[in-house]
Fold this sequence. Notes:
By secondary structure, the chain is mostly helical. It is built from 4 helices and 2 strands; from the N terminus they run αββααα. The chain has helices spanning 2-33, 49-74, 78-97, 102-127; strands at 37-39, 44-46.
Amino acid sequence: MTKNVFRSIIAAVIGIVVAFGLIWLAQYAGSEISPDAYDPDTGEVLIPVGSTIALLVGWFVGTFAGGWIAMRASAGSGAGWVVAGAVIGAALYRAATLDDAWWIMALGALVPLAAVWLAQRVAGAAAD
């Protein structure tokens, strides 16, 4: 019993590291493709559509990969859902602190949930 719990904890931590690493890579690529612009008149940072799309792709790919790795390593689905919870928490924190639009907050919850659900299906198929 203790061995399984420890295995799930380690799998979740590894999945979270993988997820956030991939999200960071997607955000970096998005900022290189379409960099943010500063508007000196209003004092706002204008985030282009390309960066937003890269962020959404990063949330999906990061959650999918991290969740899949966690599920395969733990031999269960719980660790993958923990990874999704961490990504959702970070996405909502980011959206709240940067005062993003409501739809970014909604996608910050929906995209990781869809990704981990798909990862669960794929991990289950790979285990069979």
